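Complex 472.
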Amino acid sequence: MSDSVSICVIGSGYVGLVAAVCFAEIGHKVICVDNNEAKIKMLNEGGVPIYEQHLPDMLAKHLNRGVEFTSDLAYGVQNSDAIFIAVGTPQGSTGSADLSYVEAVVSEIAHAMNGYKVLVEKSTVPVYTNEWVSRCMLRHGVEPGEFDVVSNPEFLREGTAIGDFLHPDRIVVGANNDRSAELLRRIYAPLSNGSYYTREDALPGMLSEHNPATLLVTSAQSAEIIKHASNAFLALKISFINAVSNLAEVVDADIEDIAAGMGLDSRIGPKFLRAGLGYGGSCFPKDVAAFYWVAQQQGINFQLLEEVRKINANQQDIFFNKVRGALWTLRGKKLAALGLSFKGDTDDIRESPALDLVRKLIDAGANVSAYDPAAMEKAEAILPPSDQLSYAFNAYEAAEGADALLILTDWKEFGRLDLQRLHQMLKFPIVIDGRNLYKPAHMVEHGFTYLSVGRPAAYTAQQGKPRKLVVS
Ligand SMILES: NC(=O)C1=CN([C@@H]2O[C@H](COP(=O)(O)OP(=O)(O)OC[C@H]3O[C@@H](n4cnc5c(N)ncnc54)[C@H](O)[C@@H]3O)[C@@H](O)[C@H]2O)C=CC1
Ligand SMILES: O=C(O)[C@H]1O[C@H](OP(=O)(O)OP(=O)(O)OC[C@H]2O[C@@H](n3ccc(=O)[nH]c3=O)[C@H](O)[C@@H]2O)[C@H](O)[C@@H](O)[C@@H]1O
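Predicted structure with NAI bound:
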């Protein structure tokens, strides 16, 4: 580990925590800082604040060896050469990113400086943030030669975050001079020259197609735009397939076949073509809005992004109407809802389409029995149990006596339900699947009426196919 770098990561959320343990994993010395004292205490006691595969093992491996946790920002800054800023950049009231957390951290860093440091934007930020960070440092009295600002956007996904960080397709370094770019090259060398992958204790089984990762050095502005443009493009792909799914459904075509047929073209690729309830999570909705705002500020009308957002919002309404169309009226109906997190393999409920739907169903008078393998604690904190909402211990308990079962999140276990048992539990064998986890013919064979996204509805003989209903 001769080329170990002293790193401070500010923020111990998804990105900060994963970055901190992964930097330790590739041989660096890391101090992770958070102003949430309770979180730091929990981490120092061996607790894991988020549900993320491999994170508990990585924390156990590196706690107090490669990584230490503290709420003392000055200590972290003064003992590091590179300072990664990984605090939240939530959506502000105009759609723009709220950079107040970043600004607060930068002014604290300025007051703690004790020699040359590289400040690294790990948070997702709008173009020109690097200039604002520099300006803020200078305003707080730091000399120009004492620091550089680099943009190093993060592309990890929740649920596969550790694998994504250690085996990325690419590492983007937006630096406006060689000195700072060189430090980032040193930090990422084990991933970009492949030496990490050949180590005996390297995390196995998650090698990306790009191994070792490509390290791309650009200007800071370009790197900032690469991040926003990448998220916006992925959101666009999802909205595109969702728009096609609505057409497919009307003409009795099958969106799964259509996506497969499109994805076989290597120029299109099969990923991010899963139709469903629309994208959610803490990033796509806010980043699409922020990127639209960035363009607007520069006098560019990026209307396409507004359409991406509208299609996404519409997708949920379409599903809601499908539920209503299948059940006639909702008031007093009991619905089993499987899934609360914004996607499978995470307990994150931020901007979750599943949770939004549960809310809408309750508002429409339905009684919901919900189940999620990981997100119930977080969901209960903002949607407490009530006359109309209960939380079940498993999918079958949720289904007991329900008029229909709704699949709202793509947890793998929801695609492997015991269909015979489920059939016995439900009052009516109706499954409305917002994630296309089953084949329609298979569901009909098991006696279910099965409605999904972008595929012909499948009805059993007993249930009969109703005429197309117009739902207002
Ligand atoms: N969540 C994700 O999967 C990804 C997020 N990003 C970006 O990374 C950034 C962080 O996102 P998350 O990790 O999800 O955020 P988060 O909200 O989970 O975590 C942010 C952390 O920063 C801490 N913090 C806030 N102000 C602080 C201060 N003054 N000093 C010390 N700590 C402070 C908070 O206590 C919190 O623990 C955002 O810009 C996001 O867009 C980028 C890629 C993936
Ligand atoms: O900037 C970020 O925070 C991150 O945002 C996304 O990662 P994440 O939000 O964790 O989750 P995704 O797997 O991208 O899913 C986002 C949403 O899109 C939905 N989705 C995804 C793929 C798909 O084909 N269809 C679809 O509806 C998911 O259900 C989910 O609601 C990006 O994939 C990451 O590269 C990026 O770093």
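DSSP finds 17 helices and 14 strands in the chain.
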